Amino acid sequence: METLGILDEIQSLVSDTLQVVSYKWLSRHFLVSSNTAKRLLEELVEKHGSGLEVVYTLSGWLKNDPSNYHIRLVSSPKLTDSKQEFDGNCSVQVYSVQACVPKDPAALWNAEFVQAEELFKQSFTVDNCLRDNRLDKKISNNHIPVVIMRSEHHPFQFQLVSFGSN
Question: What is the CA radius of gyration of the chain?
């Protein structure tokens, strides 16, 4: 499917069915790499940004806590202020697009969760991108422990507390 067709389908999913479309969901649904999915969401935001609510992933070191690497999910209105909390440049990527930012942040992951369950329920004779991780072979994270904490004050903010080898 060509890029324009995918962008039109994403726009339809968001505006007609009110689905949250994250880069993970998009990657699995269209069998494209995570980086391609992020690029597609960025293109969609550039074309239709005023009609969408966007959640961004910010990652980097905070000015007030430079010893830990932080990852935050931030809605569009809070993007500029949140970027100021990071020391130097932080990575900014589109995490998801939706018709409105849900009050419950779990809604951001619901479509991904349902999709993952459906993929895992498939017969082992069926190839699927989740089981064999074919879309993101560059990074293997099966043996890297990660601890993530949810912020009490910011429901869409998560902190990567530790990241390293066993």
Answer: 17
pTM score of the predicted model:
0.73
Q: At what angle do helices 3-16 and 34-48 cross, to 10 degrees?
A: 70
Cα–Cα dist 100/105, whole Å? 12
45-103 tens-digit pLDDT:
999 878 899 999 999 999 988 888 888 989 999 999 999 999 888 999 999 999 988 88
- What pLDDT, in 10s, does the model give residues 109-121? 787 788 778 877 8
Give the number of other Cβ atoms within 10 Å of residue 27's Cβ.
22
Burial class (CB in 10 A: 0-12, 13-18, 19+), 33: middle
What is the dihedral sign for C-alpha 20, 26, 28, 33?
negative
SS3 101: coil
